[in-house]
Amino acid sequence: MAKLLSCVLGPRLYKIYRERDSERAPSGVPGTPTSVTTPPSSSWDTYYQPRALEKHADSILALASVFWSISYYSSPFAFFYLYRKGYLSLSKVVPFSHYAGTLLLLLAGVACLRGIGRWTNPQYRQFITILEATHRNQSAENKRQLANYNFDFRSWPVDFHWEEPSSRKESQGGPSCRGVALLRPEPLHRGTADTLLDQVKKLPCQITSYLVAHTLGRRMLYPGSVYLLQKALMPVLLQGQARLVEECNGRRAKLLACDGNEIDTMFVDRRGTAEPQGQKLVICCEGNAGFYEVGCVSTPLEAGYSVLGWNHPGFAGSTGVPFPQNEANAVDVVVQFAIHRLGFHPQDIILYAWSIGGFTATWAAMSYPDISAVILDASFDDLVPLALKVMPDSWRGLVTRTVRQHLNLNNAEQLCRYQGPVLLIRRTKDEIITTTVPEDIMSNRGNDLLLKLLQHRYPRVMAEEGLQVVRQWLEASSQLEEASIYSRWEVEEDWCLSVLRSYQAEHGPEFPWSVGEDMSVDGRRQLALFLAQKHLHNFEATHCTPLPAQNFQMPWHL
User: Fold this and answer.
1) 49 burial class (0-12, 13-18, 19+ CB within 10 angstroms)?
2) Active-site residue set
3) Model pLDDT for residues 388-399, shown as the tens digit of each residue
4) pTM for the whole structure
């Protein structure tokens, strides 16, 4: 009877990964059914085949879930319509509640029938036995057996807790349950305190900004968090996850962040291979509709690196919603997991981000300054210009206030607080992070990210003459035009390197540098062009084109 109840309440099982016969170990979980047949060694995996009763019950519950999601998103319009028609009176609401209660009882009955179907399936009974054993005892053998199953991630046991590192327990300056520290936007008027009347006047605007950010804004910024989109992508995500597990020997883990969100991760370990880059770990930060199952993790994987992918809060197996605070909390526990559980030193970790993932990558770089390098692909400096691009001009004040207060992705500000090597990859046909049209390459916000970084690190070099010549170089839309501008100013790379190395030897590596202070105008121009070329590489493609492995290069450093 207890096993039947476990089958009723248990998670949905999607796929069973099969090990090769030579690697199969005897089951260490008592009570595991032995009637499950082993597939031939040529077959690694199989989709879980539910019995007819479970299959049909699952279809009904999945359809009900989709209808509930549609009802949730359309509820404001539905309530407004019902109010206008007079259907919200007590005499009409009571019968409706009876219908709703009857429907819930029917769905509960369908769930019980699904549980019976699972109970009659030896494959599911074996799975639920292993899952329960792992929750009781997270031994290495139990976890190894559980890793052979792909199921609803909500039931996966937690593998790593944000408080697990001993340094976190002893430190008073670490993250609290509210979250890690973020850079806050400066007030518009410094040195002035709002009176009570001013605060009351601002209250309607603050309420509006909050509502916009938590309804339309968040879903526009992170469409991958929308349930209906995830439902449509589920087959693709399952296929991508199977590829990582079967072909790359990926290991899935659940991390508990300081805000209580559970973060879905996938780790591929290449340290045992002959390739030297396998000793380096690339932490991948996906875009606003990207998932590690089908996202940018494929690029460093093809290049031979060890890789740790993770999903944003609210994406696939991760819980929560992807607001900046939750994003920073998530990447913080991911980095802690890489250091304290996977055993990588910060000097062996590389942060690689695509598009909006630049926010979490720059936050991690700012917060963990010993990290080896940062690579930002198709990223931007600040969200406000891109948000204003897609919204009406009459909403400018509301959009700016909403972004600054609730969705402040200040990538450039965070990146300028990192002292290590940085590489920016600019898509020459990017249609997402340009503020006009894709053909206008100067409206690509990756340009602004480069300029802000160089102006912070080399303020004397990036004075008026240096800034002007770098802007000319950024206007080039092809390698031929870039080379033409580079040769026009007769950039001597050996001279530039000697100047930078001499300054570093005398003053140390900490930025900002005052190099270029006593330099000629031509010298500053040469140095500015040299630095721009070392920090930004062009990739002739649109925003969503996967980056080829040969374009995944380590950033330049002295």
Assistant:
1) exposed
2) 355, 430, 507
3) 999 999 999 999
4) 0.91
